[in-house]
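The material for today's practical consists of a large collection of protein records. There is nothing in a record beyond a sequence line and a structure line. As an example, a complete record with its sequence and its C-alpha cells follows:
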Amino acid sequence: MKKAGCAILVIAMGLVLLIAVILVDGGDGEDDKCLPGGSKSAGGGVPAGQYSLPEENALDSVTSEFGLRGGAPHQGIDIAQGEGTPIYAFADGVVAQAGTASGFGQWIVIDHQIDGELVSTVYGHMMDGGVHVQTGERVKAGQHIADEGYNGQVSPPGPGGSHLHFEVWEGGRLSGGTAVNPRLWLDQAVEPGSGSDSGDTDKEAGETTAPTGRGELQPDPRFSEENLQLNSVRMGRAIAMNFPDVDTIGGWRPSDATADDHPAGRAVDVMIPQWQSDKGVELGDQVTEYVLGNWEYFQVDYIIWRQQLIYPDSTSTMEDRGSPTQNHFDHVHISLKPSEMAQPNAEVGTAPVGGSASRAEAGEIDPDCDVDGGDHDLALNADNIPADWVRPIQVAGGTCSAVSAPLIAGLLEQESGFNTSAVSGAGASGPAQFMPGTWASAGAEMSEDGKMIGPPGSGDINDPKDAIPAAGRYLCDIAGRQKPAIESGEVKGDPVELMLASYNAGEGAVQQYGGVPPYAETQNYVKIIPQKAKKYEEL
C-alpha cells in the first residue's frame, strides 16, 4: 500500500506541474491575465541603451504637468490610464525604495547612473499589491515593476483618481537632489516592449545618456533687446524660446518711478495674455517656476508676479500700487543681477528647455491633492478636519518652507476650532481669525483648485477656500520679513515661535521685545500650536 500511495503521489505532483506549465506558458495570449496585480500587458524591454516610457502611450495620457499648481510646485507629471495599467522602469538601475510612503500609498524609487551622475525616478500611488519589485533589486529599462493605482491621497478618491505620479530627480531623490521636468527625459524615451531588454551595449549596466535639456538662444521679434545687459538678453530669449503663448516681452525704458532696473537694462517684463483668466494665471505661474528653477543659471535678482515679491526661499506681498499693471497682475517682472551691456545680435549661449527644478525648500502639492513623497511638509492626518478644509490647508502648507500643513491645521484649531463663522471679541473673523485691516492686504479670492484669482482684499474672510491660503501667505510674509532680524540677532528665538507670535500679537510687539512678547496669551499660543500640529501629522 505504501508503494501504491507513493506512485499516486508522484502522478499527482506531475499533473500539478503540467498544469502550472500550461498556465504560465499560455500560448493563446491569455497569459497577461496571470501577471501579478492583474496587469493588462507584460510589455517590457527596450533597445539597449534606451529609456522606456513608464506606461505605454504615456505622453498621450498626461493629466497634470510639472510646475506650479495652485500656487505650489508639482514635482512630477501625472499619467492616467486606469487601474492596473502596467508601469515600467524608465532606465536600468537599482530599486532604492519600494513600499509604503506618506501620501503615495505605495511608491518605488529607482536610482540610475546616467553619464556618471545619480538620477532617480519615482513612481507613486500604486495599490498595496501593485508593486512587483523589492528594495535593492536591480531592474532593466522597460521592466514591468508595478501597476497603476489610486492609493494614498488622490482626488477623486477611488478608481476615478487612478494615475501614475512620475518624477525625475537629478542628484537622487533620497540624496538631497533636485526635481526636474520629467518631459526633458520622457521626450527621449521609447515605448516599452519596443525591443529586447538584453544584448550587447557599449555602456555599463544602468548607464545611458542624459538629455541635453538645452536650446540655442536666438533673437525673437517678441522681445526688444535695445539697451539691455547680457543677463537680461539671455533671460528674455529663454522666455521666448520656452513660452510660445507669450506675445510680448518688454525690456529697457528710459525712466521708472519705483526702481532703476529697467533704465539700467537689467530687467524684463513678460506680458501675460488673458492675465485675468485661469489660463493666464497658469502661464504666469509657469514662467515664474521656470525662472525660480534656473535662478543661479540666469543670475536672477528677484521676481514680481501678482503683487508678490518672490525669491527662491521666500515670498512676500507688496504694497498696493493702485493698478493691475503696477501690481504686476498682467506681467511677470524679472530683475537680473548686473552684467555687461549686450551688443546687437549678441551670442548668449544656451538655456534650459522646458523649465527645471522647483524651489529647493518649497512644499509640493499636485492638482488632485496628492501629497507625493514622505519627507516634505504637506502630509496631513485629516481625520478630524472638515473635508472642505483639507485642500486649502495643503495649499497653505505649500506656500513656503516656514509653514507646513499640520502647522496650519493646528493654528486653525486654536484660532477658530474649525468654525467658519468664528468672531473674536477684538473683531477678528473667520477660520483664520483675520482682522479686517489685515485681510485688506493678506486676503484674496481663490479658485476651487487653489489659485489666486482676485487682488488683495478680495474673497470671503469666512470662506475656508479663501481664508486658509491667506493664513499661509501671511505667515510666510512674516517669516520673510523676520529672517534678516533673526540672522542679525536683533530678534532672538525659535523662528516658528517668532512667526506665530507675530500672527498673534503683531510684528511690532515681537520687534519691541526682541523675541516672543511676555504676554501670557502669546507665550501659550506659540507653544500650543506646534503641539496641536503633531496630531495632524501623517502617521
The first helix runs from residue 2 to 25. The chain is about 30% helix and 15% strand. The two ends are 60 Å apart (CA to CA).
